[in-house]
Design goal:
By secondary structure, this protein is mostly helical. The protein has 20 helices and two strands. It is globular.
């Protein structure tokens, strides 16, 4: 067959492909399953199964229904986050009191007793140790509560029902229904969500899932959202309603992330990644009673401890960098102060500040260290110090003290809201960026997946800041 005939056949097949419509594969698949069901009905005696009461089928009629499916999904997410917000406050305060109010002064006294040079004392204790201490105090309690609860839902068999509910939305956005599963994985870790896209057979739809997975709030960003919502959003509500309002704010950010995922998937599928949505078969597994103690152990070891350890590994050098840029001076000003001042005008346009922008640059290795970095840099700006050196972490013993420090750094409700938005819409962490490259083998798409969220973050926070300043 000549090349001319081959080209003609390919051109004709492409024309016919679009003439049959977008629903052809769905219609074909449904007809196949309908024929199979008719064959089973005519050939299989299922009188015993009809008599048997199936509890899982009754539950599925509720949790996957068009009326109750989404309200139940948001209710379960709300309960998990509410337990996390309420439960994390007390242990977080205890850890902060232990690590910052007791161990830190003891370490300083020990360093003074052996005449440790001030620069080594500051570098190790006020830099490395305090960054690690803040990661533990701020990150450990919410992770230790959120991950076991999320794992229990996974073991129970509810997450595939979430995928079933979201399938139609992903289809309308030009993405694959299995992206709901990779999105759920992204709520734990975006790098894991990127790897999970291997379950999508279509290269085009898999690439869409990879690029948009960053809009799932990963474990490193949940504590940031919870902390800021509790301090600022909850503060504007009546005392008895503060936790509920904070909860709604965090859920709102998570849902907004899903909206950006749908919108971006639709935009990509209609432009640079245009194509037909493929069909897949999702089998809902049976419900299983969660093995509570095993799940608790597994989630604490495989998720909480490993994620915390990764955060500590990145926090230690970040703390060292913060201390160094806070104590190395150029023309009388520290490097950190110079960078913060230079970032402040751009930060103001975004409803943020120079501290937040610098913190996100320092925290590129891991999202878990954003809040500790912001706190340490805010100490530098405000001059509040636990000692004589610059860049020393303020000794905080409660959520209120954290809020007082941030407000002393010029934070407002707008700053908090835009930080929550920018936490959702910013570049992936270094681990996720590397994973995207390994999965795509493309510098181009890795760059797109890394830069696109940042651009969206700048645009959204800029618009929010301008509208806020006009209306408020």
């Amino acid at each position: 067959m000549s090349d001319k005939n081959i080209d003609h056949i390919i051109e004709l097949s492409n024309e016919l492909r679009w003439q049959i419509g977008d629903d052809f594969h769905d219609t074909l698949t449904e007809s196949i399953y309908a024929d199979a069901a008719d064959i089973v009905k005519d050939t299989v005696d299922d009188r015993q199964s009809k008599k048997r009461f199936r509890l899982d089928a009754k539950i599925d009629k509720i949790v996957t229904s068009k009326i109750f499916g989404f309200p139940i999904m948001f209710l379960i997410l709300g309960v998990v986050l509410w337990i996390t917000i309420i439960g994390a406050n007390y242990p977080s305060s205890l850890l902060a009191e232990l690590l910052l109010d007791k161990i830190h002064p003891a370490l300083k006294s020990g360093a003074a007793s052996i005449n440790m040079p001030w620069w080594l004392d500051g570098f190790l204790i006020d830099g490395v140790y305090l960054a690690v201490a803040w990661v533990i105090a701020v990150m450990l309690p919410p992770m230790a509560i959120f991950f076991p609860l999320f794992t229990l839902l996974e073991d129970f068999g509810y997450l595939p029902r979430v995928a079933f509910n979201l399938d139609s939305l992903f289809k309308r956005s030009g993405a694959h229904g299995k992206q709901a599963l990779t999105m759920s994985m992204g709520f734990g870790c975006n790098a894991a969500g990127v790897v999970a896209t291997r379950i999508i057979d279509s290269p085009r739809e898999r690439l869409i899932a990879i690029i948009t997975n960053n809009f799932s709030l990963c474990n490193g960003r949940w504590p940031t959202q919870i902390l800021i919502a509790t301090i600022f959003i909850g503060a504007i509500a009546p005392k008895g309603m503060s936790s509920f309002v904070s909860l709604l704010a965090v859920i709102g950010i998570a849902v907004l992330g899903m909206a950006f995922m749908f919108g971006t998937s639709w935009a990509l599928s209609k432009t640079v990644l245009k194509g037909e949505v493929s069909t897949f078969h999702l089998e809902l597994p049976p419900y299983r009673p969660p093995r509570f103690w095993r799940t608790l152990y597994t989630s604490l070891i495989d998720r909480t401890i490993i994620v915390l350890w990764r955060a500590i590994v990145f926090a230690a050098p970040a703390g060292a960098v913060i201390w160094l840029i806070s104590n190395i001076h150029i023309s009388g000003d520290s490097i950190a102060a110079i960078l913060i001042d230079s970032f402040n005008p751009f930060g103001y346009l975004l409803g943020l500040n120079g501290v937040i922008l610098l913190a996100y640059i320092v925290a590129i290795p891991a999202n878990e260290i954003v809040i500790p970095t912001i706190l340490m840099l805010t100490v530098l700006v405000t001059g509040i110090s636990a000692g004589n050196g610059a860049g020393v972490m303020f000794e905080l013993d409660s959520m209120n003290a954290t809020g007082d420090l941030l407000r002393a750094g010029g934070w407002t409700l707008l700053t908090a809201i835009n930080l929550m938005l920018f936490s959702l819409l910013h570049n992936p962490c270094s681990t996720t960026i590397y994973t995207i490259y390994k999965e795509t083998k493309s510098v181009k798409w890795t760059t797109v997946a890394s830069i696109m969220p940042v651009i969206l973050g700048f645009v959204v926070t800029f618009l929010v800041a301008q509208v806020w300043r006009i209306l408020v």
